[in-house]
Amino acid sequence: MKREFAVLQECLKTAGAIAKKRLGKVSYQLKARANLVTQADVACQKAILKIIQKNFPQHDFLAEENGLKNTGSPWKWVIDPIDGTTNFAHTMPHFSVSIALAYKNEIVLGGVYDVCKDELFLARKGKGATLNGKKIHVSRVNKLENALLVTGFPYVRQNRMKELLTRFKNFILSCHDIRRLGSAALDMCWVAAGRFDGYWEDCLNPWDISAGKLILEEAGGKVTDFSGKKWTRLERFGQQTLATNGLIHREMFDIIKLDR
C-alpha cells in the first residue's frame, strides 16, 4: 500500500496548508447547536477528495461535510477535513486533519496532521505508529490514580448533563487530572504518544476517530466501546469510545459502568 500511504500524506499536508492559510480569516455557520462548519472545512474536504479521486477513482469515501460515495467498493476513505472546527473557528491553534483508509471495515492506514504544531501522526496496520517519522508508544502508567485523562462532550448534551457530569466527577475523583482540548483525533494521538494515558467520549462519528484508532492501537494501546467490546462496524465507530494505554483500560471501564 505504498501508493495509498503516499496519497494519504499528500492529502493531509494539502488540507493542512489550506486550513493554516485560512486560520482567522473565515466565519462559521451552525450545523446544529455547538456544531460548527466553516468555509475552510469545505475547501479542505474538496482538496482531499480531488486527490483521492484522481488516484483511486474506484474507491468509496465517507467525509464529514456531506461527502459520501458508496458503490460497494471494499476500499473506503474516512475523512475529517478539520477535526476541532470550534477551536479553528475561534483561532485556537489546536485542530487537525484526520484521514483513514478502510478495507472491508478494517482500518489499514491512518493519518492525523496537527496543523499548527506541524506534527504528523501516521500508522499502517501491523507496522506501528509514528510522529514525524519517529516511532511512538503509549505510556506505562498502570494505575488510574496516576493517569492524566482527556475527554470531550457531545454536541447533543442538553438532556444528558446529569449523566455526563456524573461520569466526569467519577473520573476526576479517581485519576490524577483531566483535560478537554476539542479535537478527538488529536486526543487519540496524544494517548498514542504517551502524553495522555486514557480517553473517553461518546456520540462521535467514524471520521472523528478512525485514523486515531489505528494510530493508538499500533502504538500499543487499546480501543473499545463502553461495554468493553471492540468496534466491528465502520458506521458505528466512535459512538462509544474508550481508548487507553491498555494498562488502565479495566479501571476506566469500571468507572464508566458506575453510571450506566
A few lines on this structure:
The protein has 260 residues and is α+β, with helices and mostly antiparallel strands.
What distance separates the N and C termini? 42 Å
Count, helices: 7
Low-confidence stretches: none
From N to C, what is the helix and strand string?
A: HEEHEEEHEEEEEEHEHEHEEH
Determine Rg (CA atoms, Å).
17 Å
Q: What's the β-strand tally?
A: 15
By secondary-structure content and strand pairing, the structural class works out as alpha+beta
Q: For the largest beta sheet, what order do the strands appear in spatially?
A: 4-3-5-6-7-8-9-10
What is the makeup of the main sheet? Answer: 8 strands, mixed
**Range of strand content:** 25-35%
Helix content: 25-40%
Broad shape: globular
Mean pLDDT: 93
Q: Descriptors for this entry?
A:
single chain, 260 residues, alpha+beta, 8-stranded mixed sheet, 5-stranded mixed sheet, 7 helices, 15 strands, globular
What does this structure look like?
- The protein starts with a helix and ends with a helix.
- It is an alpha+beta fold and 260 residues long.
- The chain has helices at residues 2-22, 39-55, 85-89, 161-172, 184-192, 206-218, 249-258; strands spanning 28-32, 35-38, 60-63, 67-69, 75-83, 96-103, 106-114, 119-124, 129-131, 134-135, 148-151, 177-179, 198-202, 222-224, 240-244.
- The chain has seven helices and 15 strands.
- The longest helix is centred in the first third of the chain and has 21 residues, at 2-22.
